[in-house]
Amino acid sequence: MFCRNCGKELIGSPEICPNCGAKPMSGTSFCPNCGAPVTPLTEICPKCGARVVGEAVGGRTWRPTVAGILDIIAGAFGVIYGGFFAAVATEEAVFGIPAAVLIILGIVAIVGGVYNLRRRVWGLSLAGSICALCGGILGILAIIFTAMGKNEFK
């Protein structure tokens, strides 16, 4: 493997390049397979034929952004559903508990969505995506995209 930022060969899979200090897959200047110079728009390395597209400039992809948006939408649904349940609750406490749970899950999902959009604290972002399950299938997609974008978080 070669650092995409400086092109130096890496031994093992280090978190940072010992040559330039960047995350090895964060750059777009070199092929990670052979170390040949490439441009950010290069899809296939002209030297070795390896696919070099997939990561956006600076190592940022669309995955955490989409996960954040899905978290926020699903969280809003959770808060709305919870508010609806609270509004139709009779004097029985049975309706009050699910309403409060949905509202809390919705709020945590929205906060997790913000963390996803900012690419901060992966654990909280994942927790928000899990809480987004209160919004249905959007939560499942949010969990998948949050997990796929783990290496982009600080």
Concise structural overview:
This protein has 154 residues and is mostly helical.
Question: How are the elements arranged and paired?
Answer:
Layout: H1 63-88, H2 93-118, H3 122-131, H4 137-148
Description:
By secondary structure, the chain is mostly helical. It has 2 domains: 56 residues, no CATH class; 90 residues, no CATH class. Helix content is 48%, strand content 0%. The protein has 4 helices and no strands. Helix 1 packs antiparallel against helix 2, helix 2 packs antiparallel against helix 3 and helix 3 runs antiparallel to helix 4. The longest helix has 26 residues. The radius of gyration is 21 Å and the shape is elongated. The two termini are 23 Å apart. The model has no long low-confidence stretch (mean pLDDT 83).
The 3D shape can be described as: elongated
Give the topology string: H per helix, E per strand.
HHHH
Low-confidence stretches: none
Q: How many structurally independent domains?
A: 2
Which properties best describe this structure?
mainly alpha, 154 residues, single chain
